[in-house]
Amino acid sequence: MKYKSKIKSLILKELLVPLIAIFSILTIGFFGYIFIEGFSPLLTIYMLVTSFSMIGYGDVVPLTDAGRIFTILLILSGFSFGLFSIGKITAFIAEGEISTLLKQRKMNKQLNSMKDHYIICGYGKTGKKVLEDLLDKNYQVVVIEGNIDKNEKLKERHEDKFIHLEGDATSDEILLLAGVERAKILISVLPTDAQNLFVTLSAKDINKNVKVITRIDEASSEAKFKRAGADFLVSPIEIATDHIISIATSSADFYSFVEFAGGRQELKDYKFGLVEIVKGSDLINKTYREANIPQRTNLNVIGFYSSTSELQVNPKADNVIQLGDRLLVFGIENQIDDLKKIANYKEI
Predict the structure, then answer these.
(1) pLDDT of res. 251
(2) Which is it for strands 185-188 and 211-215: parallel, antiparallel or unpaired?
(3) Tens digit of pLDDT for each residue in 161-174?
């Protein structure tokens, strides 16, 4: 409704003067011929058409001197206002304001219909990669970016595949426009911790159920992000450090395998999954040997997170699976889905 009223307002603003001018000249001409020459309404309309169309049939009915002067003035004013009106209408169409508003209205309708979608705040190197991966998986995505140069790059992409909003992601208004109250995941990868923290606070204030994944550069900021409600924190520095240490202390490590798998064409359908064991699962209190996960799903458990510990890699056969454990596995999507069913998986 907002964009509909804007379109009406713009049309009235740009076209009202030319339309009033043309209507006024025709009205003056119509009543002028009737008053000056005593023409009938039909003959008056005929005179107006022949005069303004520049056909020039001559005096169909003899005119008085007053009538000729009136016709000259009518033609000159009609010609002048006609050129003015054509110029205004041409400029209105050429400047594309109406098409921009129509495009915004269409985008607004799309946004209002989106649910459980993904919002990416920031289109840097990380945001670009996240966007590409989400689009490859056919997810609905909204990208918010405030930098002019980055917005130009975004416009070069196929924007029919995602919604692109130009604006400040820390603004409640732009987050509401992006549909944060109906979104499933918000990923904030803005340049600074302060911006990402502000987005986290705003998003959680609007929708406490939206899962927020955010990048942090300073380890000291972690507690602030947790208090703000961030669900997952990603630190590029910590990832890089862990990677370096892992390579330095092991000839064959988990990170090397991740890089190897990511670069192999035959493994392109494989991915990592994190599956939580929830109440009701028959895996609870069973050892990995008793659980028979490889036989039931064709998956091997690479590691697990318990409620009290960080990632434990390569669990032993005698380790017991507990309620709340999150199992890290590597396989194709339907295999991971099988494990989710056994674990009575819920979205986290």
Answers:
(1) 47
(2) parallel
(3) 788 888 899 999 99
